[in-house]
Amino acid sequence: DRLPALLRTMPKAELHIHIEGSLEPELIFKLAQRNGVALSYPSVEALRAAYAFTDLQSFLDIYYAGASVLLKEQDFFDMAWAYLEKAAAENVVHTEIFFDPQTHTARGVPMQTVILGLHHACQRAHQELGLSAKLILCFLRHLSEEDALATLEAALPWREYFIGVGLDSSERGHPPEKFARVFARAGELGLHRVAHAGEEGPPAYVTSALDVLKVERIDHGVRSVEDPALMDRLAAERMPLTVCPLSNLKLCGVKDLADHQLPQLLSHGLVAMLNSDDPAYFGGYLNANYLACFEAMPALGAKQAYMLARNSFEASFVSAAQRAQWQ
Ligand code: HPA
Ligand code: ZN
């Protein structure tokens, strides 16, 4: 069976990866020591043992705690570089990386420290790994829209270092409508727009992300399967869904990967592809997501593998000329 080899070696893009979610426990401890930050876990093993999540919030609490060790530009560089080396080794040729500036600026870390550390890693990946890497600035939806607006303005001196904005963190109770003005502002600035919707929240959040935030992709979006009219619309508009199967499994969105919505999304003609979301927390990087899905879902074969890779390029924010190099 040559399918696993195909999955590992085919060129692909990753479009849904939170860089703070790529921070491995070993690097958390190394940075904690380097920066003199106290952790509430005695060892790498104890921290990893705490990665038993029941829902999105139970994950977010520990994810924000892990990010507290990031203080200096070098820390952000080291975190991103570790991810980029792994991505290149998995034949990811293009990646669009989410970062959460508010998680850091709220602790007194300057915006410049965050963006320059990440940007320099992306630049080096291009030079040394031949990997194209872009940044997407995410707003935390559990915070206010005023905070998001201030964050966007604070990032504008480094406008050319990120290609778009996203919306993440606790979904339920924080509908897309809450961020209408900041997404309109991002649109005026010529930034791409994406948002997490339909991960834990209802399909109505997917609809309002499209209609109110004018997003070009939906992150997760798996609960769209509950609304047949929405499924038809997503297919007709070729609206991409950045699906993260191991994330949905670890956050108990599905009981078993065999129950995952991916085959349904693909058979409905949606532009879905696979992503790792928070690989250090959810049990694997991009190829682990591919391998686990193809193992668990009998509907997936070589045809679907090529389709997923093709969708990853179609849904990316790179030019058609650039895409032609990879496909
Ligand atoms: N959902 C919402 N917010 C997040 C996630 C996610 O899967 N990962 C990191 N922040
Ligand atoms: Zn996510």
Tell me about this structure.
With 327 residues, the protein is of the alpha/beta class. The chain has a single domain, classed as Metal-dependent hydrolases (TIM Barrel, Alpha-Beta Barrel), CATH 3.20.20. 50% of the residues lie in helices and 14% in strands. It contains 17 helices and eight strands. The chain has helices spanning 3-9, 25-35, 44-49, 56-67, 73-89, 101-105, 111-129, 145-155, 180-188, 203-211, 228-236, 245-250, 262-267, 279-282, 286-296, 302-314, 320-326; strands at 12-18, 92-99, 132-140, 164-168, 192-197, 217-220, 241-243, 272-274. Strands 1-2-3-4-5-6-7-8 form an eight-stranded parallel β-sheet. Helix 8 packs parallel to helix 9. The longest helix has 19 residues, at 111-129. The chain is globular and about 50 Å long. It starts with a helix and ends with a helix. Zinc ion (ZN) binds next to strand 1. Hypoxanthine is lined by residues 18, 21, 56, 63, 168-169, 196, 199, 247, 277-278.
